[in-house]
Amino acid sequence: MRVKPFSWTILLICGMLVTASSQLTFEAQNASKPVGTKSSAKADALPQIWKSVSTGKEYRVKVEGDSFTAEWSNIPPQAAKQGAYIRSECHRSGARWIGTSRVLLPCPMPDGKLKMCPMILRFEVNFISPDRITGGGEILRDFDCRSCTIRKTGWGPFTWTPQRQ
Question: How many alpha carbons fall within 13 Å on the CB side of residue 33?
Answer without folding.
Answer: 12
